[in-house]
Amino acid sequence: MNFKFIPAALTLVAATALLGACSKPVPSEEPVRAVKVLTVGVEGMRSGGEFAGEVRARVESRLGFRVGGKIVRRQVELGQRVKAGEVLAQLDPQDYQLAAQAAKAQVTAAATNRDLAAADFKRYKELRDQNFISGAELERRDATLKAAQAQLDQATAQGSAQGNQAAYTTLVADVSGVVTAVEAETGQVVAAGTPVVRIAQDGPRDVVFAVPEDKVAQMTIGSGVNVRSWGAQTTLRGVVRELAASADPVTRTFGVKVSLPAKDALALGATVTVLPQALERSGVQVIKLPTSALRQDGQSSAVWVLDTASMTVKLQPIQVATADGNDVVVSAGLQPGMQVVSAGVHVLSPGQKVTIYKEKTAVTPVNTAQPAIQSIAPSASTMAAPASAVSVK
């Protein structure tokens, strides 16, 4: 064996292995994905503007005591129906009763002073008629009588005011309605005017809902509104009664009040669906796509459009106008007849080759049962074959 060629052979093998390790691997071909597509067409919208609203009383009053004090009793509860003149709550009246008694005593004292001044004036008038006193002296008595009468009038007015203050310690419902909120409890010290009970007055009902800024210009006072109750599934007809002059500082939406006929009064606080006729869009021809076809890229939306000639996809930016049920309405970027990928949009790349996905049909099972195989077990007669005779010599 010639050993002088062994080092050269080993060097050649090492160089070959090194070149193989440094060479770039052959890139794998991108897989051809199967996608679902739909043909862009024009169809009518199924729904219009739809909002959630709440049924409220047209007039809702927050009632409170006209004087301050400690609440010692509250006779009504949330949801209770009250009538005009019914007692709602009571303050501790002791201080006001004492003030009323003091005012009454002042009235008595002022009346006594007035009567004394009147008697003096009468006596001095008789003396003046007999020229026993001067006219100036009679005028002084007359002034004293008028001052005493004024003090009596003042004391009487103060007594009436104190009497009213004592009466104000009882909170009475001035209208009939339903208690929708209780804002103070027994034992709480409240100031004059602090709301204690909120009452929704009996009478017409309103449906209150909010619309965004881009829709408020289409709403007009007097326009019709369909109101559908969630509980009873009944549709009522209302009219826009009031539009908010400014947007809500938190939601930046505009409030709308819809008046309902008195005969169609709904339960207070009920949630309803509001369909303004001014925003009705049923039957308008638009381009719609399912939400699964959209690809969001930041603030913009796009779809994958299929090039049927090369069977590749490209990204097409679109503008979404609004929603119609579970579909989106496209205002720009698509034309009828285009092929749009409707599923799997987040795994595609521009220029990628695709195939159209075809639904697999279920194959009807065929009865391939073979006839029962006959038993190959040997029969008793077969097993009882005669044995060959063996001769023994």
Q: Low-confidence parts lasting 5 or more residues at pLDDT below 50?
A: 368-393
What's the β-strand tally? 24
Helical content, roughly?
Answer: 10-25%
**Structural class, please?**
alpha+beta
CATH topology of one domain: Elongation Factor Tu (Ef-tu), domain 3
Number of helices: 5
Mind telling me the CATH class of one domain? Mainly Beta
The CATH architecture term of one domain is: Beta Barrel
Q: Strand-residue fraction?
A: 25-35%
Features:
393 residues, Helix Hairpins, conserved putative lor/sdh protein from methanococcus maripaludis s2 fold, 6-stranded antiparallel β-sheet, 6-stranded antiparallel beta barrel, 5 helices, disordered C terminus
Question: What does this molecule look like?
Answer:
By secondary structure, the chain is of the alpha+beta class. Among the domains are: 93-168, Helix Hairpins, CATH 1.10.287; 203-279, Efflux pump adaptor protein, beta barrel domain (Elongation Factor Tu (Ef-tu), domain 3); 285-356, conserved putative lor/sdh protein from methanococcus maripaludis s2 fold. The protein contains five helices and 24 strands. β19 and β20 form a beta hairpin. It is rod-shaped and about 150 Å long. The two termini are 72 Å apart.
Topology:
Elements: H1 6-22, E1 33-35, E2 37-39, E3 42-44, E4 51-57, E5 60-64, E6 69-74, E7 81-82, E8 87-91, H2 94-129, H3 135-167, E9 170-172, E10 177-182, E11 189-190, E12 195-201, E13 205-211, H4 213-216, E14 224-229, E15 235-243, E16 254-259, E17 271-276, E18 285-290, E19 295-297, E20 300-307, E21 312-324, E22 327-332, E23 339-341, E24 354-356, H5 380-383
Parallel strand pairs: 1-24
Antiparallel strand pairs: 2-23, 3-18, 4-13, 4-17, 5-12, 6-8, 6-11, 7-10, 8-9, 10-12, 13-16, 14-15, 14-17, 15-16, 18-22, 19-20, 20-21, 21-22
Helix pairs in contact: 2-3
